[in-house]
Amino acid sequence: MTTPDTQTEAAADAPRPEARAPRGFMDRRARDLAAERRILARVSEVYERYGFEALDTGALEYADALGKFLPDADRPNEGVFALQDDDDQWMALRYDLTAPLARFVAQNREGLTKPFRRYAYGPVWRNEKPGPGRFREFTQCDADTVGSARPEADAEIIAMAAEGLAAAGLPEGGYVLRINNRRLLNGLLDRAGVADEGQKLAVLRAVDKLDRLGPEGVRLLLGEGRKDESGAFTRGAGLSAAAAESVLAFTAAGAGDRAETLRRIAEVIGGSAEGDAGLEELAGIDRALAGMGVGADRAVFDPSVVRGLEYYTGAVFEAELRLEILDEKGQPARFGSVGGGGRYDDLIARFTGERTPATGFSFGVSRLAAALRAAGRDSGREARGPVVVIAFSPNDMEAYFGVAAELRAAGIAAEVYLGASGMKAQMKYADRRLSPAAVILGGDEIAAGTVTVKDLDLGRALASDVTDNAAWRAERPGQQTVPRDQLVGVVRRILGEAQ
């Protein structure tokens, strides 16, 4: 016969799961969450000033709508996390915010005003091998204009991205938007006599490695190929020496001045119908950026930018961080790209069969927050703990909660200590929470209608200079007893001085 005691023993002997997070997923505490929320709030404010409306689509989309899976696989989970619905249709967690936008526009196209301008943010999931700085779940923030083929629509997205990055906390000179146009690349390949699609992709992939390999490494990849330090050989694009030099001349045409860059590019690819169309689009972007006051310190034309080899159809842009940061060894390091975007006029046609112009920008929220922290631009103030109300007696809990309620009603975070420890441990708890202040409400204070407030921030500052414990106890730094009706004002002064 099974008794309660034997059931308890069996439960104790049962194997226990190991406490572990799945690979590629991370736990985030208050400081990280507060930093990301602050970024999203500030960027959202910028986007709404530009007239973009917020949109939130569900985490799951039908897998065929996402368009990123193996059609011949029994389980379409290549690159995405997929599951089967009760009607046998495959669904998958969204891997970005643009594919759901394309589905939404196609599904609601009759009722949407055009152009349709929306921004969105939220987690996305990718079923890829995790690694350092590479996660399977992360937060993105997007802004897109659907329904306008004008280059000014691209320019507005670029200007808005620049203003959003500044609002998030990046300093002047800490970032730049690098802009190119896929039509220029197509014109360049036409001039180089490259017609084969596979060879075109090989050229673009070689150009995309310019930052990492430098001109000489790219020159090899444009030709016969390149052997890396491990001895592995990468087959090249097979261009002639003259064609390879024209590609390198194109990538080197960037200048600080956007108009000068256009002139240099025209010297390399002028005369190609596709290339000339790309030049005209960049000229339109330049004029619009100038009208919005976005100079070359924030947005430059850079022919070496290559993004989304089979995705983008026109302008492409990338947000590069230029913050001064140090690596783990204390050496100067580059943080690189934090986001990008461009024109993708073919995506919605997957649903409708009609080409629909669209352009947008996306950035990684967690990556931007990490960059700001690495550069010392994140103070962490939002991760501060609440004011802690010290609890002495179970009989006075009503008074303690009354104090906490009064502070909360005034917009001040507060909590009553609900552990079972004494005052010393409670003060240590408040200190570890980085609480700005502790409220002491003993029997004498309750009877007299007063409260004692201890400024914990001041205490921390003084503690670093106090070496004599007796002097420390005698001075009782930052502690004052005031009438109860002055509590909120005293705490607000402490919070104001802490900021």
TrEMBL record:
Domain Aminoacyl-transfer RNA synthetases class-II family profile stretches: 37-386
Reaction(s) catalysed (UniProt annotation): tRNA(His) + L-histidine + ATP = L-histidyl-tRNA(His) + AMP + diphosphate + H(+)
CDD domains xref list: HisRS-like_core, HisRS_anticodon
Residue ranges of the region described as Disordered: 1-26
Basic and acidic residues bias: start-end ranges: 15-26
Assembly mode: Homodimer.
Name the record gives this protein: Histidine--tRNA ligase
Natural source organism: Phenylobacterium parvum
